[in-house]
Design brief:
By secondary structure, the protein is α+β, with helices and mostly antiparallel strands. It has helices spanning 2-9, 17-30, 43-50, 54-66, 95-101, 120-126, 173-180, 197-203, and strands at 70-73, 77-80, 106-117, 133-143, 146-156, 185-194, 210-220, 223-233. Strands 3-4-5-8-7-6 form a 6-stranded antiparallel sheet.
Length: 248
């Protein structure tokens, strides 16, 4: 009996049992197996899967809920939390979805895709320490066969290992990440820049032409998920913000 009680408190690594279960559930979410909105197995299912007490399972789920990774609903169960983009001053847009919503045909062209050990520059972009593994992707988005966005993206493979199995010729990196991987913090940097030789060729503009450049880094609970640089032809886009004065 004493051995059973100990095994419920700690796993073979000496880590608290509830923490081991919490990490296992986090891994299922970060891998994309359980996308935002997906239902988490019930307490009863988890009790059987991990052969532990109800208190242990409840503690693991409570920890996930406290971190914002899941939402617990009475009588309905627990669900993977959805990003609340409407709370951000600048939303995270799905390029593919926006193009299709405008009634235009969409196509993506993957220029390069490389799994590698992160360089110092990669680590700085993701704001994370070395060593780590990343997936580096460069692609161009087309609307009615016209190039509209050049994308340069890094994805942290420690956080999202399942992304290595995704065919970006079928679904764009941004669309897949928004559907499959939760995030809790996003940071935008917006600037004007002159197109370098590579970006000019990708967007079919003249080298040195003005571009609108959006750099975005997303994280979950302090862990880097992705960093992307999106370059748009400067003559085709503008930023719009609507606001009202605060009541006096």
């Amino acid at each position: 009996m004493s051995e059973l009680r100990v095994s419920q408190r700690t796993g073979p690594t000496g880590v608290a049992r509830y923490a081991e279960i919490q990490r296992a559930l986090e891994a299922a979410i970060f891998s994309g197996d359980w996308p935002p909105g997906a239902r988490v197995p019930s307490e009863q299912e988890l009790l059987k899967r991990y052969a532990c007490s109800r208190m242990t399972v409840n503690k693991a789920l409570s920890a996930l809920a406290a971190s914002g990774l899941i939402v617990r609903r009475r009588r309905s169960g627990s669900f993977v939390a959805k990003p609340e983009a409407e709370k951000n001053v600048l939303q995270i847009h799905d390029t593919e979805e926006e193009i299709r919503r405008e009634g235009k045909s969409y196509r993506i062209k993957v220029l390069s895709r490389t799994e590698r050990n992160a360089t110092k520059h990669d680590a700085a972009r993701l704001n994370m320490p070395l060593p780590t593994r990343v997936l580096a992707v460069k692609c161009v988005h087309f609307a009615d066969e016209e190039p509209v966005v050049a994308e340069d993206r890094l994805i942290n493979l420690d956080a999202v290992p399942s992304v290595t199995q995704v065919d970006f010729n079928v679904t764009s990196p941004g669309s897949w990440l928004l559907r499959k991987v939760p995030w809790s913090q996003a940071e935008h940097h917006i600037r004007a820049a002159n197109a370098n030789k590579d970006v000019a060729a990708q967007l079919k503009i003249i080298e040195g032409d003005a571009c609108l450049v959006v750099e975005r880094r997303t994280q979950y609970a302090g862990q880097a998920i992705t960093h992307v640089t999106l370059s748009y032809p400067g003559n085709g886009y503008k930023l719009v913000a609507r606001f009202s004065p605060s009541p006096t």
